[in-house]
Amino acid sequence: MTIDQIKERIEEIRSLVGDPEAAHSKEDDLYRDFIRYVALGSGGISIVVKARLVLTVIDIKFPRWHA
User: Fold this and answer.
1) How many CB atoms lie within 10 A of CB 6?
2) Tens of pLDDT, residues 23-56
3) What is the pTM assigned to this prediction?
4) I need a labelling partner for 47 at 20 to 30 A (CA). Which of 3, 4, 10, 65 fits?
């Protein structure tokens, strides 16, 4: 999972703020995929930078809920 891939997924979430359910689902997918990526030991030395980038999705304002 590259920084560019993470940024693309964050932008996808940002584009979905008008559909909170879809945005929240994509947010959950990003978290799950990133945790899997880290758990597999794929993070390398830049893992802290990548983790901080993933967490910026928290700042995107939309209602978070699950149906």
Assistant:
1) 21
2) 999 999 999 999 988 877 776 778 888 888 999 9
3) 0.77
4) 65
